[in-house]
Amino acid sequence: MATYRHDVLIIGSGAAGLTTALRLPDECQVALLSKGELTSASTYYAQGGVAAVLDQQDSLESHVADTHVAGAGLCRDEAVRFTVENGPDAIRWLIDLGVDFTRFEGGDDGTLPYHLTREGGHSHRRIIHAADATGKAISSTLIGQVKQKQNVTLFEHRVAVDLILQEHHGQRRCCGAYIHNIRTGETDVVLARSVVLATGGASKVYLYTSNPDVATGDGIAMAWRAGCRVANMEFMQFHPTCLYHPKAKSFLITEAIRGEGGHLLLPNGERFMHRFDERGELAPRDVVARAIDHEMKRLGADCLYLDISHKPADFIIEHFPTVYAKCLQLGLDITRDPIPVVPAAHYTCGGVVINEHGETDVPGLYAIGETSFTGLHGANRMASNSLLECFVYGKAAADNIARHLAELPEPRDDAEWDESQVTDSDEDVVISHNWDELRRFMWDYVGIVRTEKRLERALHRAELLKKEIGEYYSNYHISNDLLELRNLVVIAELIIRSAMSRKESRGLHFMRDFPDSVDNPKDTVLTPGTF
Ligand SMILES: Cc1cc2nc3c(=O)[nH]c(=O)nc-3n(C[C@H](O)[C@H](O)[C@H](O)COP(=O)(O)OP(=O)(O)OC[C@H]3O[C@@H](n4cnc5c(N)ncnc54)[C@H](O)[C@@H]3O)c2cc1C
């Protein structure tokens, strides 16, 4: 077992982790971890872009108002204003670092020469983007920059297992983490005066997701075990159309296909959206996702279909080159065949409760990006606000750490990873079986449409699995699959308990037993040790 010592440990190499690393001063020694390659993060897969007020026709007030409307009465105004007001500076920072956003031809009115698109919920053009691969452009630039920093040590294929807590001057502080090397199987200690969780969301808790494999809610689970409050976990956003194919993992079918006249079809070829909303296929994301889920459950169907084949082939290939190419690779010609689709878990609106500096309830521990709960998204995230949140809070956390670092205690050297009581398991099937079971019952009982009965069933199963996985974790050597499963079962319980305590329907949380919204809604804040 090796022990490493740094000033700051950042867990995660997405937009949140990279921003924090780049915003810290050069004299600060930083360790930055990623579970896989540095690009193994949702950030890399973001398509649409980043929302910010960059056009003279637009205003901060309008961005604030749109965010509140999308959040269905639960956004925290301070968080919304803080994010929106710092948005333009965050974009300028990205441009200065070299992110190659799509440019706007012509125009000389003092605004930035970049093309802005409009997305659902935004009443102005305010999405800056790099074609339809914004995340890739941002990741590549930030990773390129961080690799040049002498003060940042990069650790790939390392998974943080748990946080290290120590008493210093009567205060329980976070002083590092146990880190498992996925390649060698060894577990090391990284000590640091401040630790930043930038581990992304938890959408892998569902059977179908648009997220990469790393999105297992590790940061939320670790923070919960360390004593941090977690809020609003019932608000999981589902994207209505993800490709359903045994060989296609997590591939989104863009909403623009519906925008350009695509039809949603039942397995018998019948259209159905008009039965749910007069806007048909053009209804908002959550309405379409609920309708697809309803029809799949009613018919016991594995998937439904999205069909654009009635449009000319040239039009389809020109407008949707990425979807066309990906489907063709899998033997599906979308100019002739309907595309099999299912809704998929896409974004975690809740997370670890933080303040405007990114600080959690545990001194020394910060949480940034999708893993955190700032109050920005309320009951439903507005498109492209999530990346913005990473850049704004990443800077806020870095500034706060830099201000206080000199006065923080040096961690003690007494943390050790003890493997003396564990052996190799000859029953790894338990892990793969429990992974499948967990993700399937979450999909069936805690998905897009919920009922009290379904939630009770799910809680019962989650509690059984938690016990079984806990015993397994205590007796056998750890692996990445086991660590992720141990975290996912915590996430499942947090989502179920949050959903059970919200006796209304609001934003992304739809309860068939309580279809209406209450007056004066509150955040669902769960505190460790209370159940
Ligand atoms: C397909 C897709 C399209 C999207 N499009 C947009 C968009 O257009 N605009 C927008 O604003 N948002 C979009 N989003 C959402 C947005 O991409 C994410 O919310 C955002 O990128 C989250 O950034 P993050 O840094 O918090 O987490 P991530 O980018 O997910 O990074 C998490 C990091 O933590 C690491 N990690 C996790 N657990 C551990 C552990 N235990 N130990 C070590 N490392 C760990 C991972 O390896 C990864 O490096 C999209 C998401 C997806 C999936």
UniProtKB/TrEMBL annotation:
Its EC number is 1.4.3.16. InterPro entries: FAD-dep_OxRdtase_2_FAD-bd, FAD/NAD-bd_sf, Fum_R/Succ_DH_flav-like_C_sf, Fum_Rdtase/Succ_DH_flav-like_C, NadB, Succ_DH/fumarate_Rdtase_cat_sf. Pathway: Cofactor biosynthesis; NAD(+) biosynthesis; iminoaspartate from L-aspartate (oxidase route): step 1/1. Residues 436-519 form the Fumarate reductase/succinate dehydrogenase flavoprotein-like C-terminal domain. Keywords: FAD, Flavoprotein, Oxidoreductase, Pyridine nucleotide biosynthesis. GO terms for cellular component: cytoplasm. Its cofactor is FAD. The keyword Cytoplasm does not apply. Residues 7-387 form the FAD-dependent oxidoreductase 2 FAD-binding domain. It catalyses: L-aspartate + O2 = iminosuccinate + H2O2. GO terms for molecular function: L-aspartate oxidase activity. It is found in: Cytoplasm. One of its GO terms (biological process) is 'de novo' NAD+ biosynthetic process from L-aspartate. Belongs to the FAD-dependent oxidoreductase 2 family. NadB subfamily. This is L-aspartate oxidase. It comes from Alcanivorax profundi.
